[in-house]
Amino acid sequence: MKVALVHDWLTGMRGGEKILEVFCELFPDATIFATIHNEGMMSPAIERMKIKTSFIQHLRLKITKYRHYLPFMPAA
To answer: Do residues 13 and 43 make contact, with C-beta atoms less than 8 angstroms apart?
Structure first.
């Protein structure tokens, strides 16, 4: 069975990311899909997963002002 995990953005370890971490341990072969991923900000369990990001990952200001890109996120 193929499993995909989807999360809005991977920018720090808060409540939603802690739940995602548990799912990563349950499904170690899954791929995570997210709009952006700030490498090094997540737990080791999440960082070792295959993570696919959207085009927003390649825009300027993605690390500090990613919320400014909210209007583009439905297209992402």
So the answer is: yes
What CA–CA distance (Å, rounded) separates 4 from 70?
23
What per-residue confidence (pLDDT) applies to 63? Answer: 63
**In which residue are the tokens 């200001």 written?**
61
Task: Give the count of domains, the chain.
Answer: 1
Find, among 59, 28, 27, the residue nearest to 9 by Cα. 59
Range of the domain at 30: 4-72
pLDDT in tens, 15-60: 999 999 999 999 999 999 998 898 888 999 999 999 999 888 877 7
pTM of the model: 0.82
As a whole number of angstroms, the distance between CA 20 and CA 63 comes to 20
Please report the beta strands in the chain, taking only residues with DSSP state E, as ranges in sequence order. 4-6, 31-34, 50-53
